[in-house]
Amino acid sequence: MSTTFTDQVQDYIKLRRGLGCRLDGQGKLLLDFGHFLDENAHQGPITTEVALRWANAHRSTNSDRTAQRLSTIRGFLRHRAGFEPATEIPPVQLLSWRVRRKPPHIYTQTEVDSLLNACKQLRPRNGLRPHTCETLFSLLLSTGLRISEALHLENRDVDLEAAVLTVRDSKFGKSRLVPLHATAQRPLERYMSHRDQVTPTSPSFFRTEKRATMTYSSVRVAFDTLRARLEWTAAGRSRRPRIQDMRHTFAVRCLMRWYREGIHPDRKIAHLATYLGHTEVRDTYWYLTAVPELAAIAIERFERFASQAQRVLS
After folding, report:
1. Chain centre to alpha carbon of residue 76
2. In this predicted model, what pLDDT tens digit does every residue of 16-70 receive, in sequence order?
3. Beta-strand (E) ranges in the chain?
């Protein structure tokens, strides 16, 4: 039997992960809650007052942080209520918080071309790193893969004959097949050929001479270098361009293409959700952002609709 609150939290995390939940960030907060209870020698049922004291014990100036922390431990408290009925579960209405979404940056074609051309100037100029970064960013922009999914690709996951990528154990522990457009095959073939001439064969698809596997931190350093050279700031943009904005750009471009081809987005959004690896369609809508080009298409469609309606009425 668990003797400390930390033990109880660890048992709860083990149970949830056994059910397929990853609890990466939440797990740390839950353990912090268990340590807080033990360090304060708490005895008996956990009360709302105690939960609030822990939720307020943070250094952030963001007022929503307290509500987020409280939300994280509600599941654990419900779990504990099954063993200790006197456990109090703070009501959802006690503290509310809103997700404040700062619009992502949607890359223009000019920016995409500039980024990929700038990759060629990365050091070492004659090394594999420039080729790896150019191919990696191209893949993110043409498939909408998460950066973690692309970096975890192994050679066995890239089937260029069938034009399919296999994404294994991604977010939420799901795997999926990602079809490649024909234009994506040749660049990947060129990269593989060059990579295999420069370095020994390794399981990882993306690598450099020094690294058998590309890490996110190394890609981030390369991207920050390129962003500085291109003088990309937040001026004139919704925010400074980021690596994760490539996934947003892919989703928005899909939507624009559907409109141009006369396809109703509601008929295709479920396909896009599956392609992006989302468990719910609402997660896909998070990636769809209004841009001038999309607004222009919407205005054109509305004007065409209004014109047709006017002819019918007249």
Report:
1. 26
2. 988 878 887 899 999 999 999 999 999 999 999 999 999 999 988 777 889 999 9
3. 158-159, 164-167, 176-179
Cβ-based neighbour number of residue 38 at 10 Å: 16
Burial tier of 205 (Cβ tally within 10 Å: 0-12, 13-18, 19+):
buried
Residue closest to 249 by CA, chosen among 163, 143, 148: 143
pLDDT of residue 94: 85
Rounded CA gap, 110 and 153, in Å? 28
State pTM to two decimals: 0.75
Q: Which two tokens stand for residue 121?
A: 């100037």
Q: What is the amino acid identity at position 259?
A: Y
Measure the CA–CA gap between 95 and 51, rounded to whole angstroms.
12
The CA-based dihedral angle spanning residues 87, 88, 90, 92, taken in that order and rounded to the nearest 10 degrees = 80
